[in-house]
Write a structure and sequence with these properties.
single chain, 417 residues, mainly alpha, two-stranded antiparallel sheet, 15 helices, 75% helix, globular
Length: 417
């Protein structure tokens, strides 16, 4: 249920509604030569840098199970408050900067909240059912995204004229979008409460030392050195996956902005695209999992990245709504297989009994590169003077990750009979 609520923040605030409201409505008369989309990229790049600095500290701190619910409650509360505060952002370019600050802080807190959330899985499952519980949470996340987008679309955005949605809220001064932010904040709070209230804190087994930033990074460096001595290809994979996973996140984060600002998709129809994208990504995850068993994880990752780069470059040279829908859904189709095969490959590369350490490094290194896609997205827009060029920056991130992935020696797949 926490996943069900949290995905509304990613879908409505960061990707399909508030970010588009900022770049397409609030900042449409922004003075200066810099595009609002470029400023969005810079804000999310800064957010990624903050996450990269704080994620190792957060991860080490919540190693103590008694701290996990407390950390999750604080970070969830911050996300709810920041999202509700977005209802104050009016249709005036002077509100662009407060809006970007709120968006960047929300993205950072939402990402950091996944650290204690993922760590709680061991408290709420057994080795026999942890996979099913994790997969069920992921499935509910996709469903939550679709349902939240549908509610916002029908209630606040659909239709034309001066009022929108079934609620008939006025478009003037962004009142319908600002009201949607209050709903999104309440949505997350409602579905996060069951976990925060009902989960029982474990009995502390032993006292845990306080850990600062330097101590957390020393622990991280020691884990990486240990894996390097055991099998340096797992370190190669951690680095490669950190880069291309950031590219995947960038495609979701900036795709809707490009659809509205470049390809002429309406702010209402982009929500329909978001719902379709979630469904297609779920289908791709299922098909990619089956392909993984047949041809191996590395091949699925490489072929998926090649397909995404081809679709992204094709989208750059085309125009119009139809091109965005076709190429955009193709991009989403290969996101699921890439993420699914990445987890499977790491599991096959990790030594027996060290899966937790391996996935801890996987999470931390992924967050360490979370600034790369937003930075290159904004850099390409500034260099070429058009929002369309931002897709080139995202394709470059995917290409760097692909080239790094080619150097990884993957273990042979195990064929089950």
């Amino acid at each position: 249920m926490w996943d069900f609520g949290a995905t509304a923040i990613n879908a409505i605030v960061i990707t399909f509604v508030f970010s588009i409201y900022l770049t397409g409505t609030v900042g449409d008369d922004l003075p200066g030569d810099t595009s609002p989309a470029s400023w969005l990229g810079r804000a999310l790049a800064l957010s990624g840098l903050v996450v990269a600095v704080l994620a190792p500290v957060t991860g080490v701190w919540v190693d103590a199970p008694v701290r996990r619910r407390r950390a999750l409650a604080v970070l969830t509360g911050l996300v709810v408050v920041l999202t509700a505060a977005m209802s104050l952002i009016r249709d005036d370019h002077r509100y662009m900067w407060p809006g970007l600050i709120l968006l960047a802080c929300t993205a950072a807190c939402s990402e950091l909240a996944t650290v204690p959330y993922n760590a709680m899985l061991r408290q709420l499952s057994t080795p026999e059912n942890s996979g099913r519980i994790s997969g069920f949470g992921l499935a509910l996340g996709y469903f939550g995204s679709v349902l939240a987008l549908l509610v916002v679309y029908v209630g606040f955005i659909s239709g034309t004229g001066d009022t929108r949605g079934l609620l008939g809220l006025p478009v003037d001064d962004g009142q319908n979008i600002r009201a949607a932010m209050l709903l999104t904040a309440a949505w997350f709070a409602l579905f996060a409460l069951p976990l925060l209230i009902t989960v029982r804190a474990p009995t502390p087994e032993e006292p845990h030392d306080r850990v600062g930033v330097r101590g957390a990074y020393r622990a991280l460096a020691e884990e990486i050195r240990r894996e390097w001595r055991r099998d340096r290809h797992i370190v190669y994979f951690l680095g490669a996956s950190a880069v291309y996973r950031d590219g995947l996140a960038g495609v979701f984060a900036f795709g809707a902005v490009l659809g509205v600002n470049v390809y002429g998709v309406s702010e209402a129809d982009v929500l329909l695209f978001g719902m379709a994208a979630c469904v297609v990504a779920a289908i791709g995850s299922v098909l990619g999992g089956q392909a993984d068993d047949w041809v191996g994880s590395k091949r699925v990752i490489v072929l998926s990245l090649v397909a995404m780069i081809a679709a992204g470059l094709t989208l750059m040279v085309l125009s119009g709504v139809a091109a965005f829908w076709v190429c955009g859904l193709l991009l989403c189709l290969f996101i699921g297989p890439t993420l699914s095969a990445s987890r499977t490959l790491l599991l096959r590369m990790a030594p027996e009994g060290k899966e937790g350490v391996a996935f801890g490094l996987y999470t931390t290194t992924g967050r360490a590169a979370s600034f790369l896609a937003p930075w290159l997205f904004s850099l390409f827009i500034d260099i070429f003077g058009t929002d369309r060029a931002g897709m080139g920056g995202l394709c470059l991130v995917l290409l760097i990750g692909l080239l790094a992935m080619l150097a990884v020696r993957a273990p042979h797949r195990v064929v089950r009979t």
